[in-house]
Specification:
about 260 residues; 2 domains; five-stranded mixed sheet; 10 helices; about 35% helix; about 20% strand; binds nicotinamide-adenine-dinucleotide
């Protein structure tokens, strides 16, 4: 669901897996689904009005579309007892939505997969959270062209076209960061869900003209000890907001599901 950069990269990888019988495609933009379908021999295109048909025809629904798709479609997927993978993780900042998805998934014995996406170190945060975690801080540093500004920061858009140095756009709770940068900080949501939640995870977002890649740093402290981790992610060529690592992580989870080998927690 969603045939943009992530959906297209996943489709190409899944096409190579003999165990996968069919790849069902759906996109609000029908042409995007048809374009991707033309590259995949075992694909079937559904109209955007045929969401329920697509769900019934699939064993695993992979959302790589938008927050709205998570809100409107993911509860329907688990209600039908089908497994789901969520990429637009920021939507889960809505506590009621997340509770509803978890409740329906448990009731209908289906699985919800949230890949690490563009961030690494999620394994360490999840393991560390089995004892007390004191603090989790995520710092996201991106080239200005890779950031969409929220309305309250539009006054910075001119200066960000040709900035002379790094500009701190946000510093505060993950809950607020996800609201302000829904397309940019899905990773803040993943880190929050893995560790100490949206209100205790702290986030800093920096537009930095001196970097070419999406740089994410995680600092974690807890009873396990401390972890510092820095990623330098290559942005995709077709969508500079999305790091190449995001679809790679989804493909890694699909391989775990298909081949049953789980490495890492
Ligand atoms: N988890 C992560 O680390 C991570 C990283 C990057 C991006 N993302 C998220 O993953 C999603 C996909 O990213 P992308 O780079 O492939 O985006 P993209 O813009 O390249 O593609 C998104 C596609 O989804 C389609 N779409 C949007 N809403 C839809 C809906 N309700 N139903 C069906 N199709 C719909 C669009 O028409 C578009 O073709 C985005 O929400 C993005 O924020 C997550």
């Amino acid at each position: 669901m969603g045939c943009g950069f992530i959906g297209t990269t996943i489709g190409g990888a899944v096409e190579q897996m003999e165990e996968i019988e069919a790849i069902n495609l759906i996109d609000l933009d029908y042409e995007a689904a048809v374009r991707l379908s033309s590259k995949l021999s075992k694909s079937v295109v559904f109209m955007s009005t045929e969401v329920e048909l697509l769900i019934k025809a699939s064993d695993l629904v992979i959302e790589a579309a938008s927050h709205t798709a998570v809100e409107e479609i993911v509860p329907m997927v688990v209600e039908h007892g089908k497994d789901v993978m969520i990429m637009s993780v920021g939507a889960l900042v809505d506590d009621d939505l997340w509770s509803d998805i978890k409740h329906k998934a448990r009731k209908n014995s289906c699985k919800v997969y949230i890949p690490s996406g563009a961030i690494s170190g999620i394994d360490g945060i999840v393991s560390g959270s089995m004892a007390d975690l004191e603090c989790v801080t995520l710092t996201v540093r991106k080239p200005p062209r890779g950031l969409s500004l929220p309305p309250e920061l539009h006054h910075l858009s001119e200066s960000l076209k040709d900035p002379t140095g790094p500009v701190v756009l946000f510093e505060g709770k993950a809950r607020e960061a996800v609201r302000m940068f829904p397309r940019n900080v899905n990773v803040a949501a993943t880190v929050s869900l893995a560790g100490i939640g949206f209100d205790r995870t702290m986030v800093k977002v920096i537009a930095d003209p001196n970097v070419q890649r999406n740089i994410q740093r995680i600092d974690v402290r807890g009873r396990f000890g401390e972890m510092q981790l820095q990623m330098e992610n290559q942005p995709s060529t077709s969508n500079p907001r999305t790091s190449y690592m995001a679809p790679l992580s989804a493909i890694a989870v699909i391989k775990k599901i298909v081949y049953g080998i789980n490495i890492g927690n």
